[in-house]
Amino acid sequence: MTGILDIESLDRAEIEEILERARFFQPPANQSYRRLDILRGKTIVNLFFESSTRTRVSFEIAAKRLGADTLSIAAAGSSVSKGESLVDTLNTLVAMRPNAIVMRHAASGAPHFLARHLQIPIVNAGDGTHEHPTQALLDARTILDHRPSLGGLRVAIIGDIAHSRVARSNVHLLSKFGAEIVLCGPASLLPRELEQLAPGVRLAYNMNEALQGADVIMMLRVQLERQHEAPMAASEYFRFYGLRLEHLKLAKPDAIVMHPGPINRGRELSSEVADSQRSVILNQVENGVAVRMAVLERILG
Amino acid sequence: MTLLIKNGRVIDPSSGFDAIADVLIRDGIFAEGSSEGARVFDAAGKIVAPGFIDMHVHLREPGIEHAETIETGGKAAAAGGFTTICCMPNTIPVNDNDTVTSYIVQRARQVSPVNVYPIGAITKGSLGEELAAIESMREAGIVAISDDGRPVMNSRVMRRAMEVARALDMPVIDHCEDLNLSAGGDMHEGAQSVRLGLRGIPSASEDVMVARDLLLAELTGARFHVAHLSTSRSVAMVAFAKSRGLRVSCEVTPHHFAITDKELSGYDSNYRMKPPLRSERDVEAAIQGIADGTIDAIATDHAPHAGSEKMQEFERCPFGITGLETAVGLTLSELVHKGLISVTRMIELFTTGPANILKLNRGTLKPGAPGDVTVFDLDTEWTYDVQQSSSKSRNSPFHGRRFRGGPVATIVGGEIVWSRNL
């Protein structure tokens, strides 16, 4: 049974199919969603071992709009706190015969590890600092709502790249479609080996350089919870790696600003940028539901 | 009790002997003269070598017997062709005093089919602060000191340990790892760790400690041994130290010359160990070091862990893999049959190499030495099945791997303690 564990192992055609299908699930302007019954009778368990609001709710709404039954489990109140191992927890849930598991976990590779031991499709909703495949898919859907194709686009991804699963998934996806990707951040958050992650990637330690001629600007949150060393002071970080209105002049005139959320105003981007016409942050959230509907349908439909 | 091992190709690097011959063991000791009334072991078509020594294993007893015991570890050693093993002190309690040392020595006499020599801790509880009861442990039977797995970070403490070891003419073995540089690391730091989102253990975390220890070895005149060396720079530094006449030696594990960090793609904890699997360049350097004599011994760092501990998220799993039963097969397949080293060189790495470091009267077929023999097949292919392992644990990345050549009989003190048909 195959779920979706990462973008790296998907091929271009599979990604295109998901993105195309997601377009079908986008609601027409000013209309509300209609509940479909594509996944009627299916049960999807959302298992979040790390706190999450947007991703969990997004998956839940996506499943419900497809007619599936869902339940969400936050690990804090679960058997995990009683010392049960991850495999045993999953085996217990699988014994109740759900049709798929959507999981988020703080350990990189946790869904890959489980997929080797369980016979149920697993959708990775973010594993540690590895990948967050549905985020990259919804980001691609959002870019494609503003650009005809991904090929040849210049995408600047700025922030805490080292700890970002969003960055890794986006790099793999964008690279498969021939985009140029500039990764930018302070040296401690931008390991040099990132350049070898996929074709078309280069690194920049200077934000102005990274923004030059960009079609897309993706800002990332500084993931203090994953850093094990004293972080750069917030003011210093914002001064050199925070996106402000004056920066937008360096990018293409119609460049869009993205952020996977949650955003920290005044840390990685200014309030003015977050609220500007260039920001598509809420479109990303909206597309999250459509893309996850396409993913769930693909796995269970 | 007399045993005659007949018709094998006898290779003994300690004397330079290599010919079809018979080996006679009388009363547990290599002997010459009449073999009348001897039990005969036919080794035709096989290689007869001095008993192999693994100077780096973890037997988990006392304290962690659910993962391994002196008995099961000893049986796994026998099944891997080893007649002698040295066990690291990171048990519970730590082997940092003569009571624990004596327990291990006596227990091994009762239950282990192979010879067991304990290695004592450098510091009390291997906490890196106060020196352990090194002289008492020496009297109880340790052959070296090491805080394996919990390297002594304090250079002054390490210096004192080397001074004591020098006075006792005993080697200091260090698991070279700067714990600040490696903190929180899961695997070798490089393109693969960045790709997998796992935290890196840089090569430099080993290199700085090797450099420090070599400087301290020069300062103190101690005999110093690098455990499970894994980086190209460590190999170069040891070669440099040897060229300057320092009394320095080192070992490499089979997994560090056989596989790289590329194998780690599936987050399989059987590929999680310290030092981590390194890059191709490091593997090449290790093989070069084995071939040119910089590396003195092959040791397994056999580190059994119970299934439940390895059946977790990668970053939560303990470090280490088992290795006793696959070492000879890997060395033959990856080094000898690829033409990188000769069979004789391989035997040196398992016999005279470790025996000279630890000053053991073993690793030789000379008359008068203990009658330990490893008989192995050079060419027959076989597949490793970890479910059949004699070890209590199953954490091997080599399950299902095909080997060309492997051990067929293990003889300790003239007694056949393990054999199989290949």
Tell me the layout of helices and strands.
The complex is a heterodimer of chains A (301) and B (422).
Chain A: H1 12-25, E1 43-48, H2 54-65, E2 69-74, H3 86-94, E3 100-105, H4 110-115, E4 122-127, H5 133-146, E5 154-158, H6 165-176, E6 180-184, E7 201-204, H7 207-211, E8 216-219, H8 234-241, E9 256-258, H9 271-274, H10 281-300
Parallel strand pairs in A: 1-2, 1-3, 3-4, 5-6, 5-8, 6-7, 8-9
Helix pairs in contact in A: 1-5, 1-10, 2-10, 5-6, 5-10
Chain B: E1 2-12, E2 17-26, E3 29-31, E4 39-42, E5 47-50, E6 52-57, H1 70-79, E7 82-87, H2 98-111, E8 115-118, H3 134-140, E9 145-146, H4 155-167, E10 172-174, H5 179-182, E11 187-188, H6 191-196, E12 200-201, H7 203-220, E13 224-226, H8 232-243, E14 248-252, H9 254-258, H10 280-292, E15 297-298, H11 307-310, H12 327-336, H13 343-350, H14 352-358, E16 373-383, E17 402-412, E18 415-419
Parallel strand pairs in B: 1-4, 1-5, 6-7, 7-8, 9-10, 10-13, 11-12, 13-14, 14-15
Antiparallel strand pairs in B: 1-2, 2-3, 5-16, 16-17, 17-18
Provide a brief overview of the structure.
The complex is a heterodimer of chains A (301) and B (422). Chain A is α/β, with parallel strands linked by helices.
